[in-house]
């Protein structure tokens, strides 16, 4: 039991590191390059979690599972692309970079939580069912997005109602 708790704590620590990394990638100013980078980072996350849980890793299989998992939510997958396109416009670039950063972090968090749950319950990459994990993925993504939105709304406002 203690070993399982230690693995879970280590998995959460690993996930946090990758979530911060994906948020940083969202700040990259060139659109679509960040999508390639965050996908690579998510594959590295799956690799790190597989190593922690002593699951045989396959990059090809992981890429297919990641695509299947993210492909289920077209709005989630395409939102960073659309936000990234706004990086090209000087007026909207700062807001687009922050949006991409938040979307990348929330998506990476949800991907990590899905694979932590799967690996912790004895699953492997061969028996991973993306359709069965979609609901959990969306719960985790929504929870992360809502917590970010709540933190944003909790920010102090000036007398004019404009957030600093």
| Series of secondary-structure elements, N-terminal to C-terminal | HHHHHH
Secondary structural class: mainly alpha
Q: Kindly state the percentage of residues in helix.
A: over 70%
Poorly predicted regions: 74-78, 84-93, 152-164
How far apart the termini lie comes to 47 Å
Give the count of helical stretches.
6
Overview of this protein structure:
This protein has 164 residues and is mostly helical. It is 74% helix and 0% strand. The chain is globular and about 45 Å long.
What are its keywords?
164 residues, 6 helices, globular
What can be said about this structure in brief?
About 75% of the residues lie in helices and about 0% in strands.
SSE map:
Blueprint: H1 2-26, H2 33-52, H3 59-71, H4 74-85, H5 93-120, H6 130-153
